[in-house]
């Protein structure tokens, strides 16, 4: 059974990482006095996303559903989050690499092209969706039904099997 | 001290006490043959037995005073089993507490209540003590209500040892007032105040209830509600910011949007910070409205949208505003890096300003309108939160099982 204190701790860590992500997405363009600042911000952001992925998977492993071997059920329930997080992680890394590549010599240079603009829009939109889905998943994993055998779980299992 | 010997026949009006059902002799003998047992229940019976023996001693001690105790000791072996059988039907504590009080009130009372040592000649005088017994009842009940079992165990424990001796010794100082309770802490019994112990146990129960009630579900629910509050703030703040921004732009652009260079010069330091702030607020607002319509459950979200639910519309408008706002990132950076066209390497060639700024202003206006409309839509039903209802309140039939499981695990 998931302890309330443990869950609160994990949830706050997740929210901390999410809010850092949102902060960097919002203000990284402002903080470009030196290219190194942006580089460090981007690296930490990507690590934060990676950490969040690890944490959510650890939370999955901790559920009764997973331990009972019903990985399919978990994947079925949270596939949106898993796929979106992976996509967002890829988009983030590619945008960061691209932007840093363009701005490394001169951080105040106008670097925008249509391609970069498109990638930027998609990355930022994915960030919002990722934030929403991730938050929702983290909050939903606090549901005690995931941590014990119940009628609900059996019903869900039969639904997935169909 | 045979003055009260006339009381004894009075016991006869209570036949059940005088003539109890006779159990097998073995039962009676067991407590006596094994003075110490580990189980508390057996201790109780043993204690009562030993106490009764003691009671007799206490009865006869004061009354017969200077008389040699040898007489008493010969009498009692026969009477003790009868006493024990009677006592088993009562609350054991009653005996102990009554014992303490009877010691003060007088010996004749005890004799009467126990129905022992009764002789026909003593009938007349017993009325008075009887009344006293009735008076003492409330106090006894009070004690039995509080932590009665533990208390009783302890006293019998202490007295079980010198059982045989107590028959011969004087009664004073053996039974203590029951204000103290002995609690086993780290393998040792320590005295604790009865009233304090009751308070602490109550406190523990209360805190246990609190802990039980605060589950991970409640944590998740409170986090969800907290985020909804942040969202509610960001909706209003965003609407205000967007309106202020568009008013600011139109004021700086002058009449008929003629003074673009003034707008660029004034606004260039503000463009990028505002763009960043707009993204932050739009992201928060979009996530918050997605939460409200439970966007992840696509069927519900689409149904709400088709039913023109204000919250669903608001989330759509926020998302559109977000896309529009993001699409202006390049222009915002261009404004941020504005230098007059006369300067070398300027991004702004002469005559390009209107071409770039016109759509930018229109997009900003649209964003402000969308955000303002969303805010209005949301304020129509500010309490709506489908994700809370669907996530935490669905599948209610699964919960009885879960509640049972919780109880078992705890």
UniProtKB/TrEMBL annotation, chain A:
It is a multi-pass membrane protein. The chain crosses the membrane at residues 6-24, 36-61, 81-99. GO terms for biological process: cilium assembly. It is found in: Cell projection, Cilium; Vacuole membrane. Keywords: Cell projection, Cilium, Cilium biogenesis/degradation, Glycoprotein, Membrane, Transmembrane, Transmembrane helix, Vacuole. Its main location: other. GO terms for cellular component: cilium; microtubule cytoskeleton; vacuolar membrane. Required for ciliogenesis. Belongs to the TMEM138 family. This is Transmembrane protein 138. It comes from Ursus americanus. The lineage of its organism: Eukaryota, Metazoa, Chordata, Craniata, Vertebrata. The gene is TMEM138.
Automatic annotation (TrEMBL), chain B:
GO terms for biological process: cilium assembly; regulation of Wnt signaling pathway. It is a multi-pass membrane protein. The keyword Membrane applies. Residues 1-115 are annotated as: Disordered. Residues 97-111 have a biased composition (Polar residues). GO terms for cellular component: ciliary transition zone; cone photoreceptor outer segment; microtubule cytoskeleton; nuclear speck; photoreceptor connecting cilium; plasma membrane; rod photoreceptor outer segment. Residues 1-13, 69-82 have a biased composition (Basic and acidic residues). It is found in: Cell projection, Cilium; Membrane. It comes from the Eukaryota. The chain crosses the membrane at residues 232-252, 272-293, 305-326, 357-378. Its main location: other. Keywords: Cell projection, Cilium, Cilium biogenesis/degradation, Membrane, Transmembrane, Transmembrane helix. Belongs to the TMEM237 family. Component of the transition zone in primary cilia. Required for ciliogenesis. This is Transmembrane protein 237. It comes from Canis lupus familiaris (Dog). The gene is TMEM237.
């Amino acid at each position: 059974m998931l302890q309330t204190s443990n869950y609160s701790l994990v949830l706050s860590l997740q929210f901390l990482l999410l809010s850092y992500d949102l902060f960097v997405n919002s203000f990284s363009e402002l903080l470009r006095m030196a290219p190194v600042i942006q580089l460090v911000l981007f690296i930490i952001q990507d690590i934060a996303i990676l950490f969040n992925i690890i944490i959510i998977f650890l939370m999955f492993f901790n559920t009764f559903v997973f331990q009972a071997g019903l990985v399919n059920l978990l994947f079925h329930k949270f596939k949106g989050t898993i796929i979106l997080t992976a996509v967002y992680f890829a988009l983030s890394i590619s945008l960061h690499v691209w932007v840093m590549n363009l701005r490394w010599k001169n951080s105040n240079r106008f670097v925008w092209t249509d391609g970069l603009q498109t990638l930027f829009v998609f990355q930022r939109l994915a960030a919002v969706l990722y934030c929403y889905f991730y938050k929702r998943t983290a909050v939903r994993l606090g549901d005690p039904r995931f941590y014990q055998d119940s009628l609900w779980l059996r019903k869900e299992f039969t639904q997935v099997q169909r | 001290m045979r003055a009260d010997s006339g009381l004894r026949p009075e016991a006869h009006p209570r036949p059940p006490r005088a003539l109890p059902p006779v159990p097998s002799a073995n039962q009676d003998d067991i407590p006596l043959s094994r003075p110490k047992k580990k189980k508390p229940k057996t201790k109780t019976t043993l204690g009562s037995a030993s106490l009764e023996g003691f009671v007799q001693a206490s009865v006869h001690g004061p009354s017969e005073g200077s008389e040699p105790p040898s007489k008493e000791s010969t009498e009692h072996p026969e009477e003790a089993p009868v006493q024990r059988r009677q006592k088993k039907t009562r609350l054991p504590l009653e005996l102990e507490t009554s014992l303490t009080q009877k010691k003060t009130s007088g010996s004749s009372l005890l004799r009467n209540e126990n129905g022992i040592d009764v002789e026909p000649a003593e009938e007349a005088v017993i009325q008075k003590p009887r009344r006293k017994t009735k008076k003492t009842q409330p106090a006894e009940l009070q004690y039995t209500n509080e932590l009665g079992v533990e208390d009783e165990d302890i006293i019998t424990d202490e007295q079980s040892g010198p059982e045989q001796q107590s028959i011969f010794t004087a009664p004073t100082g053996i039974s203590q007032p029951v204000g103290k309770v002995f609690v086993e802490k780290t393998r040792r019994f320590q005295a604790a105040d009865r009233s304090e112990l009751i308070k602490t146990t109550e406190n523990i129960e209360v805190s246990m209830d609190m802990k039980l009630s605060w589950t991970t579900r409640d944590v998740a629910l409170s986090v969800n509600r907290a985020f909804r509050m942040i969202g509610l703030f960001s909706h209003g703040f965003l609407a205000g910011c967007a309106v202020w921004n568009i008013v600011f732009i139109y004021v700086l652009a002058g009449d008929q949007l003629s003074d673009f260079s003034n707008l660029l010069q004034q606004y260039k330091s503000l463009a990028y910070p505002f763009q960043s702030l707009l993204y932050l607020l739009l992201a928060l607002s979009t996530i918050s409205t997605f939460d409200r319509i439970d966007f992840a459950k696509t069927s519900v979200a689409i149904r709400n949208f088709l039913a023109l639910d204000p919250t669903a519309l608001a989330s759509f408008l926020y998302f559109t505003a977000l896309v529009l706002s993001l699409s202006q990132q390049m222009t915002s950076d261009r404004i941020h890096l504005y230098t007059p066209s006369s300067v070398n390497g300027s991004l702004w060639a002469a005559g390009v300003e209107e071409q770039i700024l016109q759509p930018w202003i229109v997009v900003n206006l649209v964003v402000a309108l969308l955000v303002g409309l969303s805010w209005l839509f949301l304020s129509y039903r500010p309490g709506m939160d489908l994700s809370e209802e669907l996530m935490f309140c669905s599948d209610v039939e699964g919960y009885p099982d879960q509640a049972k499981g919780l109880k078992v695990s705890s």
